[in-house]
Amino acid sequence: MPLTLPPSGYLDANGPFFAKRAGDDIIIGLRIEPRHCNAIGIAHGGMILTLADVLLTVGSNIRARTSRFLPTVNVTCDFIGPAKQGDWIEGRIEVLKVTKSYVFSQALLQTDVARPVARISGVLIVRGDPDPAFAPERYFGG
Length: 142
Description:
With 142 residues, the chain is an alpha+beta fold. Helices cover 18% and strands 35% of the residues. The protein contains two helices and seven strands, in the order αββαβββββ. The chain has helices spanning 9-14, 45-64; strands at 18-22, 25-31, 72-79, 88-92, 94-98, 102-111, 116-125. Strands 1, 2, 3, 4, 5, 6 and 7 form a seven-stranded antiparallel β-sheet that branches. A hairpin with a 3-residue loop joins β5 and β6 (102-111).
């Protein structure tokens, strides 16, 4: 189902992003369109990083049940293989640790035929009080 994100010109221009729940897992993905590709027809690294950041921030927020906007402090991305125009790529977030100030997460982005695209990890900062605008049900059209 489409991922319902708070208004963001940048993400609106780069989506649409999709999400589903699979048990406790949160899966976030994207179909690679021509506008996501570089001059040789594969997903631009910046687009892969955009998907990685959405997965890290939104997925971690949902899995860690923080109901907050979680700004990215650090993201590490190892590009493993290409995502071509038309490929579906997705990732399942794994929250490694939640502290009072930070959330540490990682994921593997891969195609729908389990071809690895990128390995990502991130550190997100926990700020402010819980906000209904970032409650888990909000992302699923609630």
